[in-house]
Amino acid sequence: MKLKNQLWGLIGATLCMLFAGMPAFSAIAFPNINIGMQTANTPQEFTQGVQIMILLTILTLAPSIIIMTTAFIRIVIVLALTRQAIGTTTLPPNQVIAGLAIILTFFVMSPTINTINETAIQPYMKNQITQDVALDKAMIPLRTFMLKQTGEKELGLFISMAKMEKPKNASEVKNYILIPAFVLSELKTSFKIGFVIFLPFLVIDIVVASILVSMGMLFLPPATVATPFKLILFVMIDGWYLITKSLLEGFIT
Q: pLDDT digit string (tens) for 73-113?
């Protein structure tokens, strides 16, 4: 009975403390965030609202734009194929592969980014050019980079599919034709590099499998025996250095 009375006393004290603290708690002012639509009194206000919506849409699509118009496609595919060729399907992890690909992409695209900043972003921030002019100037160095990496065969494919006349020069190639042609060219190039990377490791797999069969070890997976030899070969030739060097040279030279 005494324990029961103590329990009820503790509950009552707790409730008193809570109710006693409510006035102080209610005195704290919290910010209220409202997102809504208001009537535009002038055409300028309406235009500003539309620009904000377009900017939010661009920010949403920014990752896809970065992937489809930069060196990221080739780099991340080659690194992933290298990991698969070695036989370590989870090492390095996907986060490391993607992170290294992003870092190398920024390194490769730094001259293009600097040109865009000097010719488009900074003049626009200083109100020296309009938004349309800034977008046109920003596309010039980006188009130059993509045209350098895009094959004529891929460009011809999308030009013929669009049923348009053959452009007289690179400036007449539309963006909706250049971007998919660039992506297709990057996929082809990355898989060519991946094939060359796979060849020495494929030889090791064949040799190990032949030795195991000749020794009668049919139930021993060849990948288990071949993986250490692949790692030793990759470390001895400094594989990550060579792959990174070849990727950078493919874009910079």
A: 889 889 888 888 887 777 788 888 888 888 888 888 888 88
DSSP-derived secondary structure for the chain = -HHHHHHHHHHHHHHHHHHHHHHHHHTS------------SSHHHHHHHHHHHHHHHHHHHHHHHHHHHSTHHHHHHHHHHHHHHHT-TTSS-HHHHHHHHHHHHHHHHHHHHHHHIIIIIHHHHTTSS-HHHHHHHHHHHHHHHHHHH--HHHHHHHHHHTT-PPPSSGGGS-HHHHHHHHHHHHHHHHHHHHHHHHHHHHHHHHHHHHHHHHTT-TTS-HHHHHHHHHHHHHHHTTHHHHHHHHHHHHHH-
Domain count, the chain: 1
For residue 244, give its domain range: 64-197+238-252
Residue 42 pLDDT level (bands cut at 50, 70, 90): low
pTM over 0.85: no
- Residue 116 lies inside a defined structural domain of this protein: yes
Tell me if 52 is assigned to some domain. no
